[in-house]
Amino acid sequence: MSDLLSGPFNTGALTRSGHQFGVDTGTVNPLYIEEYGGEVESQIIKTSVMKQFVNMKTVRGTDTVTNDRIGSTSLQAVTPGVRPEPGVAEFDNVSVKVDTIILARNNVHLLDDFQNHYNVRAELGMDHGKIIGRFFDEAMLIQGVKAARIVKGDGTSGTTKLPEGWKGGVQIDLGLAGDEIDPDKLQRGIEDMCESIETNDVEIEGAVLFVNPTQYYVLMRNDKLINDQFATGNGNYAQGTVLKSCGLPIFKTNRLPQEAIVGHYLSNAGNSSAYDVSAAEAKVVALMMMPKALLAGETIPLTSKVYYSDVELQWFVDSYLAFGVTPNRAEHAGVVNKVV
Predict the structure, then answer these.
(1) Where are the beta strands (DSSP E) in 19-82?
(2) CB within 8 A of 201, min separation 6: which ones?
(3) Where are the beta strands (DSSP E) in the chain?
(4) Which CATH code is given to the segment(s) 30-68+94-337?
(5) Residue 244 · residue 207 · CB < 8 Å
(6) What is the structure's pLDDT at 132?
(7) Rounded Cα gap, residues 237 and 48, in angstroms
(8) Cα separation of 157 and 213, whole Å?
(9) Integer Cα distance of 306 and 324 in angstroms
(10) 4 band by pLDDT with thresholds 50, 70 and 90
(11) Which of 38, 147, 162, 338 is the most buried (most CB within 10 A)?
């Protein structure tokens, strides 16, 4: 036996590609974790429309992030000999709570299969990245739609009380069923939405327009957006591209709500099911939004881990994050809705 331990067949420590600088950590190979995590981060950036659009605040030491609201100050003319009356500025705030972890998990029973077949790690990373990216975008766009549907009022009958000078969102309802697939009527709805927002004294510079693929290709059939006599360099019918409408960049996405949602993973009693979608909200065919329309925060950024459980006798491949989002400035959002 001693000869075998010291003979030519004894290889000593194994050479394994996952050991960084040849060091066995005793748990899982660190380079394998890095490869998996890198795939998730890469895919969520590639597939997420909203990741680069929303200003995500870090939530630490609490579960809530808050924005203060200050109403406008009124002007007055000064009359000689008369003491000017002080103006009153209204104060308010809006907050969002981060209280749910969203997880993508796969269990891998054979460690060697996970280590040796690089396509396994790549496929898991891509799948996690896509599903998390889609969930993130859907949550953001749902709140964008809700922001656009805020109606300023006294806080009753479906209205929201806002500070002086603040305004609600803009909703444009198309006139007839099928208008959402008419190139001219859909474009007119977008124009009316932008006009209404600018009438509220809001600059639409920096805004983007989100439409689902059906409406994107409807707009592509609008000559005023494609024909170089009207819009030089704005799009190419043969290439299937249309770049702007009303000066706004157009993003094609499947992540606008298209049906009612009950029991969204981020909805709970504490936030009054804030992420659920009503049938009326699901009629959106175009959403215009600026970054200030939303207040978003995250407690756990996108994290990827691979670890082994002695109890479960298997490896866990996890990607998870914890974030929350809510409407912030309603006047920075607008929607175009179909009839049915």
Answers:
(1) 56-58, 64-70
(2) none
(3) 56-58, 64-70, 91-97, 102-108, 170-173, 208-211, 235-236, 241-242, 244-245, 248-252, 284-289, 294-309, 314-327, 333-337
(4) 3.90.1690
(5) no
(6) 92
(7) 25
(8) 34
(9) 25
(10) very low
(11) 147
Tokens for 219, please give them: 């707009």
The CA distance from 308 to 317, in Å, is 9
Exposed/middle/buried for residue 86 (C-beta within 10 Å: 0-12, 13-18, 19+): exposed
**pLDDT value of residue 243:** 76
Give the three-class secondary structure for 227: coil
d(CA 94, CA 160): 12
- Can you tell me which residue has the tokens 């639409």? 204
Give yes or no for a contact between 311 and 226, defined as CB atoms under 8 angstroms apart: no
pLDDT tens-digit map of 60-83: 898 898 888 777 777 778 889 888
Q: Longest Cα pair distance anywhere in the chain, in angstroms? A: 111
Q: What is the pLDDT of residues 262-321, one digit of tens each?
A: 999 999 999 999 999 999 999 999 999 999 999 999 999 988 887 778 887 787 888 999
Q: How far is Cα 283 from Cα 260, in angstroms, rounded to an integer? A: 9
- Note the pLDDT of residue 5: 47
Q: Are strands 170-173 and 333-337 parallel, antiparallel or unpaired?
A: parallel
- Render 107-125 in DSSP notation, one character per residue: EES-HHHHHH-HHHHHHHH
> In this predicted model, what pLDDT tens digit does every residue of 158-178 receive, in sequence order?
899 988 888 999 999 999 999
Bridge partner list, 154: none
Instruction: Judge contact between 99 and 324, C-beta under 8 A.
Output: yes
CA–CA separation, 197 and 255 (whole Å) = 23
- The answer to whether the CB of 35 falls within 8 A of the CB of 66 is no
Domain boundaries, the chain: 30-68+94-337
CA distance 251 to 254: 10
Query: pTM value?
Result: 0.81
- Length of the chain in terms of residues written: 340
Q: Are 287 and 144 in contact (CB under 8 A)?
A: yes
Tokens 């007119």, residue located: 188
What does the pLDDT read at residue 28?
Answer: 58
Considering the chain, what percentage of its residues have pLDDT values greater than 70?
81
Q: Are 315 and 306 in contact (CB under 8 A)?
A: yes
Gap between the Cα atoms of 249 and 241, Å rounded: 12
